[in-house]
Design a protein that fits this description.
heterodimer; A: about 500 residues; alpha/beta; 9-stranded mixed β-sheet; about 35% helix; about 15% strand; B: mainly alpha; Leucine-rich repeat, LRR (right-handed beta-alpha superhelix); 7-stranded mixed β-sheet; 22 helices; about 5% strand
Chain lengths: ~500, ~525
């Protein structure tokens, strides 16, 4: 085998393993697996690519969920002002948080210097909803209205109280960037149910970020082959740019162009053995098929007016959370396995009274509409929706109770909700103390959430591993317990 | 092995080889037994002719013993053996057996190849340039020769004894200590000092006359826990052999706190989720059934009596149904074991042969995604999500694997009534998704109504009307039926709802259900 020096300079360490230097079984296994992939791609040729069943090919137990919608509120929603109803907090508004509750644990540097930690009651009154009688803030009336379909978890906690590390932790199981996100693991394990759309799609809404934005590491493929990474849809008018062929280029011309590029790539692969080339081939093929599938997904002309209204007025503006919720439903209908919606804002260290209500308004109606819409189409049975933040916020006011005060980060407990996909609807799992400051019943660590999501998808989180740098890695690292209490 | 790379770690390979220990172990047992028998037989005139072969058999026995010991050492590295004291005893006995066998083999070999023995020639001598002293030691009539001919029975006895000891210890490790005597008649059990077989207790006639410990808790613990928690193995220091040992507890103290199930470690561990670190039994061994766990919890709540007639105790409804299930002979039922309550609402899946690979490959080429429902079943989920419409030929291809199809998704696939006729004949079909197919009308609904195994039907955005609705809604096993976006009227739904309270009949929203949001909150700055 002859190498062009220029080409050699581009060879990654990984590709050396696969290029015939025969470094043990890892290389052999990758070569074998990759060889099969080549044959498959070559056989299908111009026809629509066959389905990718993923590494697992079959689940480890019967799957309750086939798809996941991961709605993430980056910046950390205050559980005190939304879903964790505490009459005691309302009563004690303005008084110092009891030392027995606050404990001796250090609070964040942002409020550690405060001389007093006054309890601040929720920003709006709470109401009970539905048969289940869940208490939900008046700032989230639409979510309240579907409370009977939701599973609230009040007892989740995280060891990390900085936005990006906590966000990366809850999505990848590790607080440093570089591990695969849950969506990438699912994509790797279960493949795709639609060969014309990416199996793992990420949509960030356009919103006032308040300093904390989405972090790419939360939809990264990490060390998994890069085709498992979340495919980011743009939040503007066209989620995917340049899907149309340029003037004068027909679909069949495009096809033959793709075939030629594919052939060149395969030659290159046979010389270098770099598995990233296979990812690239797969991505070109996917892009070609997306030229047809994406315009169909994003064309909302077949949506009845009242369905648009259900998602709220903002659904008419591309890039909003509401529009992305509607697009999510359309993607899920078409068999996309994992959609990650990211909404920023929420980091209300100051001015919470002014900033929190509009942030709630932006997500309340669309989130509830998405669940309702999935339900009426019979898709909620096997689609798991998770609605969460990277952590919660403190019951005490940051900067004392003033017109411009806020709430600080709080990892000890926060509230998330789930819907569908085999979860038990209409329940609240876990309990916090009267101050929403400590967990008193059924604590769930963030790894437990990931273990449970995988379980609902039919995957044993302890067995879904990837061998990298000499050890087997998994999404839940060395932790994670399936939370059977929330499973229907 | 990891799913990840397909690479095999060294430890896994060692464990793989180690498992062959229990297979290969029969070689030294057989060969050494033969050697022992021959060693005895050559002492009698008739069989003296065997003299020449005994040495070779000893050598073969010794070699196979060495191999077995090596595999055994590998086998012992498996995590499940780490905390078993019996492993050490088995290992030491095995190594001793191997050492003695090697010694005897060497001795025997030297005796047969001593200078001047039959078959000895110069070549042999040259290839065995033993030191003079050694040669003298082995010479005919020399010290060792004379010694061996006097004490030959000693190694034979030692080998025989060691084979019994090692074999028994090993057998206990593999099958559990109680395996050998499990069906021993009671006189023998008595002679061995074992507790009498619970089977001798007459089966209780009904729940009320059953004894909670002797008929329910005791046998359940014996059945599922005593492999590891018996008087000799005592994993974690606990033995469930008798009521006394059970109540004594393990190395962390009592496991049963009479009256308080939630503080009893026994109850806590058996009622955890199977993937919990603390869950018992470990390593995927068959757990207690849900009913047995409930019965044990109730027994502890009742003060964990040594014996107690159920009829004289205060029954909770939960305990009553658990006991009824156990005493009625329902314990160990398949349905209970497979995932407990979570999936019990669903009927067990039919068992079918694997779909023909060529046919699956053909369908995949046509745009279907076929996925096994889990690792234990050959049933398939079929999703058709290609951009082009499905054809009659493709549906005919699908029909060729119809016994395997559990769920079929043909959303937005240009499905026609004629195609539905074929699909409705799939014998094991439970879920059918036909959303967004304007070609699906009442004729299709009539066909769907014939597919009696269906539990989930999705006809969202099809042309099915009230006529077809009533037909589909009459499916006997139906649980969920979705028909948003069809001409089906609320009146028709109401009529059916009266008789089918067990079915989710979901018409979805209509324009009047959605209030237009007028309040506009400006995003914050």
């Amino acid at each position: 085998m002859k190498y062009d020096p220029k080409e050699l300079a581009n060879i990654a360490r990984r590709s050396l393993l696969g290029s015939g230097l025969a470094l043990g079984t890892i290389a052999a296994a990758e070569l074998l697996g990759a060889g099969k992939l080549i044959a498959k791609t070559a056989n299908t040729g111009a026809a629509p690519a066959s389905g990718d069943l993923g590494k697992l090919t079959t689940g480890q137990f019967p799957a309750r969920a086939k798809r996941v919608i991961d709605i993430h509120m980056k910046g950390a929603v205050s559980q005190v002002d939304t879903f964790d109803y505490k009459p005691e907090v309302i009563r004690r508004h303005g008084t110092e948080i009891p030392a027995s509750v606050k404990g001796t644990a250090k609070v964040s540097a942002m409020s550690n210097a405060q001389s007093s930690f006054p309890i601040m009651g929720p920003l709006a009154p709470f109401k009970q909803y539905g048969q289940s009688g869940r208490w939900v803030s008046d700032l989230m009336p639409h979510i309240g209205a579907i409370a009977d379909d939701l599973t609230f978890i009040h007892s989740i906690w995280t060891p990390q109280v900085n936005h990006d590390p906590a966000d990366i932790l809850i999505h990848t199981g590790f607080q440093l960037a570089g591990r695969p996100a849950a969506g990438a693991w699912v994509n790797y394990a279960l493949g795709s149910d639609n060969s014309n759309l990416p199996s793992y799609i990420v949509m960030k809404s356009e919103y006032q970020a308040a300093g904390v934005g989405a972090n790419q590491a939360t939809w990264s493929a990490g060390f998994l082959p890069s085709n498992h990474q979340g495919v980011e849809f743009r939040s503007g008018n066209s989620p995917v740019l340049y899907v149309e062929n340029p003037d004068g280029i027909s679909r069949s011309e495009r096809r033959s162009e793709m075939d030629f590029i594919g052939e060149l790539s395969r030659h290159q692969y046979q010389t270098t053995g770099d598995p990233e080339i296979l990812s690239k081939i797969a991505q070109y093929e996917m892009a070609y098929r997306m030229q047809e599938s994406v315009p169909e997904v994003t064309d909302l002309s077949d949506e009845p007016e009242y369905i648009l209204n259900m998602y709220g007025p903002e659904v008419r503006h591309p890039g909003t959370f509401a529009r992305n919720c509607l697009l999510t439903r359309r993607l899920i209908e078409r068999g996309v396995k994992y959609v990650n919606l990211i909404q920023v804002g929420w980091d209300h260290h100051t001015g919470i009274a002014r900033r929190h209500p509009p942030d709630c308004w932006a997500v309340d109606q669309p989130s509830a509409a998405l669940v309702t819409d999935l339900k009426q189409r019979g898709l909620l049975d096997d689609t798991l929706v998770t609605w969460k933040s990277e952590f919660g916020r403190t019951v005490f006011a940051q900067g004392g109770i003033t017109d411009n005060c806020g709430r600080d980060h709080h990892g000890g407990n926060f509230t998330i909700w789930m819907a569908g996909g085999g979860t038990k609807p209409g329940i609240a799992y876990g309990k916090t103390d009267d101050f929403s400051y400590n967990i008193v019943e059924n604590p769930i660590e963030v790894h437990d959430l990931n273990a449970t999501v995988l379980y609902l998808l039919g995957i044993d989180h302890k067995q879904l591993t990837y061998h990298y740098q000499g050890r087997d890695f998994r999404l839940t690292d060395t932790a994670g317990k399936v939370v059977h209490g929330i499973i229907a | 092995m990891s799913f990840g790379s397909g690479a095999i770690s060294t430890m896994q390979f060692i464990w793989f080889l180690g498992r062959f220990h229990v297979l290969i172990v029969h070689l030294p047992l057989g060969i050494l037994t033969l050697a022992v028998v021959f060693e005895i037989m050559v002492r009698f005139g008739t069989f003296r002719f065997l003299e020449g072969t005994v040495g070779a058999i000893w050598i073969a026995g010794a070699l196979s013993a060495i191999g077995t010991v090596c595999l055994g050492l590998m086998h012992a590295t498996e995590a499940s053996f780490q905390e078993m004291p019996a492993v050490a005893a088995h290992r030491e006995a095995g190594i001793a057996l191997c050492a003695v066998a090697c010694l005897v083999a060497l001795l025997r070999f030297r005796l047969q190849h001593r200078p001047g023995a039959a078959g000895d020639n110069g070549a042999t001598r040259q290839s065995h340039p033993a030191p003079d002293a050694l040669r003298t030691l082995f010479a005919r009539g020399a010290l060792l020769d004379r010694l061996y001919s006097r004490i030959w029975f000693l190694p034979v006895l030692i080998i025989t004894a060691l084979m019994f000891v090692t074999g028994h210890l090993g057998g206990n490790l593999t099958h559990g200590e109680t395996y050998l005597t499990e069906y021993a008649p009671n006189p023998i059990r008595e002679a061995l000092g074992l507790p009498l077989n619970a089977a001798t207790r007459p089966k209780p006639k009904d729940v009320a006359s059953a004894d909670i410990f002797l008929d329910v808790v005791g046998p359940a613990l014996q059945h599922r826990c005593s492999t590891c928690h018996n008087d000799s193995k005592m994993s974690g220091g606990l033995s469930v052999a008798t009521y006394e040992t059970l109540m004594t507890g393990g190395k962390d103290g009592p496991v049963v706190i009479a009256g308080v199930p939630n503080k009893s470690d026994l109850f806590r561990r058996i009622s955890l989720g199977p993937d919990d670190m603390d869950f018992m039994p470990k390593d995927g061994k068959t757990p207690l059934t849900k009913n047995e766990v409930a019965a044990i919890g109730w027994w502890i709540a009742q003060g964990a009596p040594r014996s107690g007639i159920v009829g004289t105790l205060k029954l909770t409804p939960e305990a009553a149904s658990a006991l009824a299930a156990i005493i009625g002979g329902a314990q160990g039922g398949q349905e209970e074991q497979d995932g407990g309550t979570e999936m019990s609402a669903e009927e067990p899946f039919p068992i079918v042969p694997a779909a023909e690979a060529a046919q699956v490959a053909k369908l995949v080429g046509e745009g279907f995604i076929l996925r096994k429902i889990d690792q234990t079943s050959n049933l398939l989920d079929a999703d058709y999500v290609s951009a082009k419409s499905v054809t009659n030929d493709e549906i005919a291809d699908l029909a060729k694997i119809s016994p395997q199809l559990l769920r079929v998704n043909l959303r937005h696939a240009g499905v026609t009534d004629a195609m539905v006729k074929t699909i409705a004949s799939f014998p094991n079909l439970r879920n059918l998704r036909l959303e967004a197919n304007p070609g699906v009308t009442d004729a299709a609904a009539g066909q769907i109504a014939m597919a009696k195994s269906l539990t989930y039907v999705n006809l969202v955005n099809t042309k099915v009307t009230d006529v077809g609705f009533a037909q589909v809604a009459s499916l006997p096993k139906l649980k969920k039926f979705y028909f948003w976006g069809t001409p089906i009227t609320a009146g028709a739904v109401e009529k059916v709802k009266v008789s089918r309270k067990d079915v989710v009949l979901s018409a979805g929203l209509s324009p009047k259900d959605v209030l237009v949001e007028t309040k506009v909150v400006a995003p914050a700055n």
